[in-house]
C-alpha cells in the first residue's frame, strides 16, 4: 500500500515537474509584427492628417498653417513608410554612428606647476622654470 502511494506520488511529482518545465520552456510566441509600432505611427499620422483637414475645412487653420503642417506630416509619413519597407526587406537598421571626435594630439609633457604643455621632455619648465618630472 505504501509502495503504491509512493509510486503515485513520484509519478504525480514527475508529471507536475514536467508540465511546469514545459510551460516555461516554450518560448513565448511573438505576437507583435516587426512593423507593428510603425503601423501604429502610420495610423497616427493618418489620423493627424484627417484632423488637420477637418480643422482646415472648419476654418480653424490658415492656408499657410495647413500646408505647412500637412507637409511635415506627409514627410513623417514618408519616413515611416520607408522604415516599414526597410523592415519588411529585413535590412539591418541604419545605426547612425556619431562621428567620434578625433583625440587631440596632446603634448606629452605637462608642467605640474603651471600646466604649460610641451611637446618634448624637459628638465625644467620653460614657462615657470620649476623642475618637471
Ligand atoms: Zn611650469
Identify the notable features of this structure and list them briefly.
133 residues; mainly alpha; two-stranded antiparallel sheet; 2 strands; flat; binds zinc ion
Short description:
The protein is mostly helical. It has helices spanning 2-25, 36-57, 63-88, and strands at 109-110, 117-118.
Structure in words:
This protein has 133 residues and is mainly alpha-helical. It is built from three helices and two strands, in the order αααββ. It has a two-stranded antiparallel ribbon with strand order 1-2. Strand 1 (109-110) and strand 2 (117-118) form a beta hairpin. Helix 2 packs antiparallel against helix 3 (63-88). The N and C termini lie far apart (89 Å). 3% of the residues are buried. The structure holds zinc ion. Zinc ion binds next to loops.
Largest sheet: 2 strands, antiparallel
Which spans of ≥5 residues are poorly predicted at pLDDT below 50? Answer: none
Mean pLDDT, to the nearest integer, reads 82
Measured between the Cα atoms of the first and last residue, the distance is 89 Å
- The computed structural class is mainly alpha
Helix content: 40-55%
Task: Give the arrangement of secondary structure elements.
Layout: H1 2-25, H2 36-57, H3 63-88, E1 109-110, E2 117-118
Zinc ion is lined by residues 111, 113-114, 116, 125, 127-128, 130.
